[in-house]
């Protein structure tokens, strides 16, 4: 198992290298000049020249990239052009917020999506199947920003049950933290639940028609045991992949949801950085996001091996 994890981890290194090249290159292809944005109304040529020299913008792009990559390898993601704060420090401030939102959203998605998918597959063609599909299509169709605004209007403005926006760390006030994060988690979780429901249903329908499931039923096993221990155990593999990808997507930051609920996470950080042309922050956030995606794929690969005995023998 350790050798398998090591092999998969080594494969990630060239992937990250390619991502770093694309991040750096595409960022520098954007129109505008970050030095002019930093200088504001102070457009003195000498000031601009000093700023370019200070941040290395006067060097060729390949040298700028190698300098940035060398810092990344040493754990230095650069300094924000707007605030002068280390990018790694900014990311470490925002990352716990995004991780909390991602975990809560994914828990809601799993608690809703997987049971609905199993029920829909085992009750195919019944009213349960139709209702589950209608709910799933609604979850996929309703925009997150609209659902967020409606929740704020109903739950916060009209009923006054939860705060409309803001954020509180769970280490400072766990109750307040839960209250501020539950609505954005519902907004994100319901959309993910719809995708998980459809994926689980498709996987279960294929497995329920297999020979070993018919054999299990012929042996007199209860329907619940057949569904959970035989069918779902084999259908869960593609669901694991989808879950890992969705969680990685959440780690990238839910831009609209964080903006609507004023949550200081990754989404708000990268939007502000793009508008301010803060190259270092954008590059750092995208690179950390790529690492998150690769890590979640590694987790999915490990779970595959743990859940599938044939893959354990192959590794």
Notes on the structure:
- Helix 1 packs antiparallel against helix 13, helix 7 (144-158) packs across helix 8 (174-208) and helix 12 packs antiparallel against helix 13 (279-307).
- The chain is globular, with a radius of gyration of 24 Å.
- The chain has 14 helices and no strands.
- It is mainly α and 315 residues long.
- The protein has two domains: 2-73, no CATH class; 89-275, MetI-like fold, CATH 1.10.3720.10.
In short:
This protein has 315 residues and is an all-alpha fold. The protein has 14 helices and no strands.
Topology:
Blueprint: H1 2-29, H2 34-39, H3 45-55, H4 61-73, H5 87-122, H6 127-141, H7 144-158, H8 174-208, H9 211-218, H10 223-251, H11 255-260, H12 266-275, H13 279-307, H14 309-314
Helix pairs in contact: 1-13, 5-6, 5-8, 5-10, 5-13, 6-8, 7-8, 8-10, 9-10, 10-13, 12-13
Which properties best describe this structure?
2 domains, 315 residues, 14 helices, single chain, 0% strand, MetI-like fold, mainly alpha
CATH fold node name of the largest domain:
MetI-like fold
CATH architecture designation of the largest domain: Orthogonal Bundle
Put simply, the count of helices is 14
**Sheet bearing the most strands, described?**
none
Count the E strands. Answer: 0
Helix percent reads over 70%
Overall pLDDT confidence: 80
How many domains is the backbone divided into? 2
- Derived from helix and strand composition plus strand pairing, the structural class reads mainly alpha
Radius of gyration: 24 Å
The global form is globular
Name the helix and strand elements from N-terminus to C-terminus, one letter apiece: HHHHHHHHHHHHHH
What distance lies between the first and last C-alpha atoms, to the nearest angstrom? 7 Å
Give the DSSP E fraction (strand runs of 2 or more residues): under 5%
């Amino acid at each position: 198992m350790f050798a398998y994890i090591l092999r998969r981890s080594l494969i990630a290194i060239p992937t990250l290298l390619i991502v770093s090249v694309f991040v750096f290159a595409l960022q520098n292809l954007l129109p505008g000049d970050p030095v002019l944005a930093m200088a504001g109304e102070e457009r003195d040529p000498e000031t601009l020249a000093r700023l370019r020299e200070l941040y290395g913008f006067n060097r060729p792009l390949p040298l700028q990239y190698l300098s940035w990559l060398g810092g990344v390898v040493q754990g230095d993601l650069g300094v924000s052009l707007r605030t002068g704060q280390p990018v790694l420090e900014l990311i470490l401030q925002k990352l716990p917020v995004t991780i909390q939102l991602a975990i809560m959203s994914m828990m809601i998605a799993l608690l809703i999506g997987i049971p609905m998918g199993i029920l829909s597959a085992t009750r195919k063609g019944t009213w349960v199947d139709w209702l589950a599909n209608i709910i799933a299509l609604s979850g996929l169709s309703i925009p997150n920003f609209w659902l967020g605004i409606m929740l704020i209007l109903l739950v916060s403005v009209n009923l006054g049950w939860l705060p409309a926006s803001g954020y509180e760390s769970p280490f400072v006030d766990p109750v307040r933290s839960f209250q501020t994060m539950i609505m954005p988690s519902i907004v994100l979780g319901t959309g993910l639940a719809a995708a998980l429901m459809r994926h689980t249903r498709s996987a279960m329908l294929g497995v329920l028609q297999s020979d070993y499931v018919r054999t299990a039923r012929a042996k007199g096993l209860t329907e619940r045991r057949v569904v959970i221990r035989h069918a779902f155990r084999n259908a869960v593999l593609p669901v694991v992949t989808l879950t890992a990808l969705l969680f990685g997507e959440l780690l990238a930051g839910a831009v609209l949801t964080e903006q609507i609920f004023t949550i200081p996470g990754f989404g708000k950080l990268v939007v502000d950085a793009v508008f301010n042309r803060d190259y270092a922050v954008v590059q750092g956030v995208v690179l950390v996001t790529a690492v998150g995606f690769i890590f979640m794929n590694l987790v999915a690969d490990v779970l595959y091996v743990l859940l599938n005995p044939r893959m354990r023998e192959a590794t």
